[in-house]
């Protein structure tokens, strides 16, 4: 979908780069990841203490753990739907064709020059440049790792119902890792991967938006990106 916009000097085309569902899933995942990081670190080191009471009513650790589980399954569910949209959704075509740019050494070099303030932004047909595409692919792998390790940790606490079903499908991963202690360690290390990714991601989004104000940061809110209208 595109519309023509006249800025007074140049004509631009407004493209819907990200569909509504893609944007909704992005923000749900962002909220879930932030919540999982906070609750996860608290579970590992409970630095808050409930007010002492003679009755067993203050279950702060249990409440935090419950939120961690809820957000974890939300992240898994949304990530599955997000993958479905990336592969099959017609409106996600700009994301899929971004892979082609990863195969071009020239675009890689030109894009690195942009980040070093040594060149102009290369013409890219897709939604992401090569560095963005590779980074988001690595993020998807990180989500996969932290999800599987989280599932293993879940069924080792909740042995019946859903836990029993998940154990049937994911016990192999626990065995492959060499035991539950290693699974917990991998889960913790993957969390630090998100801690590193988030500030870098925010910085690069803001950087691109300021240097190329054609819909950068707000594209994940409005879904719109603007391109110069080439008239023949």
Automatic annotation (TrEMBL):
Q: Which residues cross the membrane?
A: 27-47, 67-88, 133-155, 185-206
> Please, which domain of life does this record's source organism belong to?
Bacteria
Going by the UniProt record, its keywords in alphabetical order are:
Cell membrane, Electron transport, Heme, Iron, Membrane, Metal-binding, Transmembrane, Transmembrane helix, Transport
Write down the SUPFAM superfamilies for this protein, in alphabetical order: Transmembrane di-heme cytochromes
NCBIfam families linked to this entry = CytB-hydogenase
Write the protein's name: Ni/Fe-hydrogenase, b-type cytochrome subunit
Question: What InterPro entries does the annotation carry?
Answer: Cyt_b561_bac/Ni-Hgenase (IPR011577), Di-haem_cyt_TM (IPR016174), Hydrogenase_cytochrome (IPR051542), Ni-dep_Hydgase_cyt-B (IPR000516)
In its keyword annotation, does this UniProt entry include Transmembrane?
A: yes
């Amino acid at each position: 979908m595109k519309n023509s916009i006249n800025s007074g000097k140049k004509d631009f085309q407004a493209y819907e780069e990200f569909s509504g569902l893609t944007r909704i899933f992005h923000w749900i995942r962002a909220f879930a990841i932030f919540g999982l990081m906070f609750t996860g670190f608290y579970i590992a080191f409970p630095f808050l203490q409930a007010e002492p009471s003679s009755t067993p009513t203050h279950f702060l650790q249990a409440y935090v753990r419950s939120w961690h589980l809820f957000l974890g399954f939300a992240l898994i569910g949304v990530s599955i739907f997000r993958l479905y949209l990336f592969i099959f959704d017609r409106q996600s075509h700009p994301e899929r064709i971004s892979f082609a740019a990863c195969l071009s050494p020239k675009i890689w070099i030109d894009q690195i020059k942009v980040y070093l303030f040594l060149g102009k932004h290369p013409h890219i047909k897709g939604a992401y440049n090569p560095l963005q595409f590779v980074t988001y692919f690595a993020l998807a792998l990180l989500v996969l790792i932290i999800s599987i390790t989280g599932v293993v940790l879940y069924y080792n606490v909740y042995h019946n119902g859903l836990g029993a079903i998940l154990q049937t499908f994911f016990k192999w991963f626990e065995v492959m890792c060499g035991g539950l202690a290693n699974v917990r360690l991998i889960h913790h290390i993957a969390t630090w991967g998100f801690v590193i990714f988030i500030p870098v991601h925010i910085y690069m989004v803001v950087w691109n938006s300021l240097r190329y104000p054609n819909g950068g940061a707000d594209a994940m809110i409005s879904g719109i990106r603007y391109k110069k209208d080439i008239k023949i």
